[in-house]
Amino acid sequence: MALPVLSPSAAGPALEGGAPLDVAIAGSGLAGLAAAVAAAEAGTRRITIFEKMPVIGGHSAVSTGYFSAVKRIPGRPEAEYRSAVRAMMDDMMATGRRRGDVRLIRKLVEESGDAVNWLSRMGVVWMPDTYEALGGMSPRSYISSFVRGGYDLVYALNRQARRLGVRIRFSSPVTSLAPDPASGLCRVEFRSQGKASAILARSIILATGGYTDSVALRSRYDPRLTAAFTTTANPYGDGAASNTGDGLVMAQKLGADAVDLDQILTIPFSGGRITNYVGPDIYLDEQGHRFVNEAASMEDISKAVWDLPGKTFWVLTDSQSSKGASRNAKLINGIVKTANSLPEAAREMGIDPEALEEELQIYNECARTGKDPYFHRTTFTQQINKPPFYFGRERPYIHFCNGGVRFDTEARVLRKDGSPIPGLFAAGEVTGGLHGHGRLGGTSLPDCVVFGRTAGRNAARLALSRLSVWKA
After folding, report:
1. Which of 193, 190, 187, 247 is nearest to 21 (CA)?
2. Is there a contact between 395 and 335 (Cβ–Cβ < 8 Å)?
3. Closest Cα partner for 205 from 33, 382, 399?
4. pLDDT tens-digit profile of 107-163?
5. Positive/negative CA dihedral, 409, 112, 64, 135
6. Rounded CA separation 302/311 (Å)
7. What does the pLDDT read at residue 453?
8. Could you tell me if 401 and 265 are in contact, meaning their C-beta atoms sit under 8 angstroms apart?
9. Do residues 27 and 209 lie in contact, with contact meaning Cβ atoms separated by under 8 Å?
10. Side-chain-facing half-sphere of 242: CA atoms under 13 Å
């Protein structure tokens, strides 16, 4: 099978010598690394990851690391497992406003437990308990650490990829994909050490992430998301922009369809919030009153924040909660402050101390009884009553693109008529159609691994079948 014959430019960078790559992967985040390891496990050997940045991992490396999954537990009834599968699928469908492709959702959920076990074999050591990720709706998320979860997954897969002979070319962004009529393969053009280069590949995997860092793309689909807003991966705006929609643009030039491009998730969790699980904090408006169920879906919380007059609010927790990796940096930079009493915290926040005391009394009674008649929250891990208190402002941060390149359960990139583009696969945030109009918390990383593995296996299978297409 050859890629569709489009009209590649006559002029272009010279091809590198040697045999074509079996699998070329754009992006070294969790999806790209999972794809590379899976392709190597499937028997291909000439695998190269092209990474535009000088470091590995993309947004996966700085993620909290929550990995929602349903595992079969030895000795437990099959009916229990099937019930858990249905529950997670229902939560994904509900969060996505029933716009997600149920076939993709079913695949992710049913293969998520095996993905956890696969990562364990790669060397990931999980914490003993499962947790409710932000917007996760249930305590079904595995995590390796509260302070380095995403990095642990990237590190383990990178180590395994290196063991299997996968090559990673850093500071080498893929700039173009085009069919090569002479060979029937794909011409991958990229930049390396400041100059344009090209190489042939038997199969391509796009794992380039979304377009949260591209002001032009994101504001085209959601005009609210101007340059005034930063991302959760780069909340202070002083880092490098990596998720700029490169894979989406290249796939569309090859005739790929796209879906849900206007569904860009913003979440208010990169400012004053220093915990990264559900249950230990309270959200307060400028007058010191709760305004949302803090355990609601990320979409519902985001909507409530956008509806606030100033689109900002306060997050308050105490000494009992487990703090995330950002705690010290936020304290040092003054993004989060501490107080030894609630009146002191109220004065710092510009809130009437009596109003804050009264609100906390009501909240703590809800936490004590597990009943919240005001916002119907059901997940509380503690009362908030032991100083020092930690507090800081939050606002919307651009977090995740629910939309992207349309793909199927075999990770094949699809045209508008539903047919696959031969030789082109995709996984991770570059894809669309899985999450619909909202993403369940804790599902972005299993998305990367489940579909990354699928893309890697299928790209390898195709590459091995095309070995006779090109002779060195």
Report:
1. 187
2. no
3. 33
4. 999 999 999 999 999 999 999 999 988 888 899 999 999 888 999 999 999 999 999
5. positive
6. 10
7. 98
8. yes
9. yes
10. 30
Q: What is the 3-state secondary structure (H, E, C) of the chain?
A: CCCCCCCCCCCCCCECCCCCEEEEEECCCHHHHHHHHHHHHCCCCCEEEECCCCCCCHHHHHCCCCEECCCCCCCCCHHHHHHHHHHHHHHHHHHCCCCCCHHHHHHHHHHHHHHHHHHHHCCCCCCCCCECCCCCCCCCEECCCCCCHHHHHHHHHHHHHHHCCCEEECCCCEEEEEEECCCCEEEEEEEECCEEEEEEEEEEEECCCCCCCCHHHHHHHCCCCCCCCCECCCCCCCCCCCCCCHHHHHHHHCCECEECCCCEEEECCCCCCCCCCCCCCEEECCCCCCCCCCCCCHHHHHHHHHHCCCCCEEEEECCCCCCCCCHHHHHHCCCCEEECCHHHHHHHHCCCHHHHHHHHHHHHHHHHHCCCCCCCCCCCCCCCCCCCEEEEEECCEEEEECCEEEECCCCEEEECCCCEEEEEEECHHHEECCCCCCCCCCCHHHHHHHHHHHHHHHHHHHHHHCHHHCCC
Cis peptide before 387 (omega within 30 of 0): no
Structure tokens of 89?
């699928």
Q: Are 37 and 168 in contact (CB under 8 A)?
A: no
pLDDT in tens, 155-213: 999 999 999 999 999 999 999 999 998 888 999 999 998 899 999 999 999 999 999 99
Residue 100 neighbours by CB distance under 10 Å? 26
Chain segment 23-69, per-residue pLDDT in tens: 999 999 999 999 999 999 999 999 999 999 999 999 999 999 999 99
Bigger pLDDT: 300 vs 406: 406
Query: Cα separation of 383 and 299, whole Å?
Result: 25
* Rounded Cα distance, 201 and 29, in Å: 20
Contact yes or no for 28/54 (Cβ under 8 A): no
> Around 245, how many Cα atoms within 13 Å sit in the side-chain half-sphere?
21
Mean of per-residue pLDDT scores for the chain = 93
Bridge partner residues of 258 (DSSP) = 405
Cα distances from 363 to residues 146, 288, 349, 465, in angstroms, run 25, 12, 18, 62
User: Half-sphere exposure of residue 193, counting CA atoms within 13 Å on the CB side?
Assistant: 3
Confidence of residue 4 (pLDDT cuts 50, 70, 90): very low
pLDDT at residue 458, rounded to an integer: 98
Q: Name the amino acid, one letter, at 173.
A: P
The closest alpha carbon to 374, from 283, 292, 281, belongs to: 292
Q: Can you state the angle between helices 78-95 and 102-121, rounded to 10 degrees?
A: 120
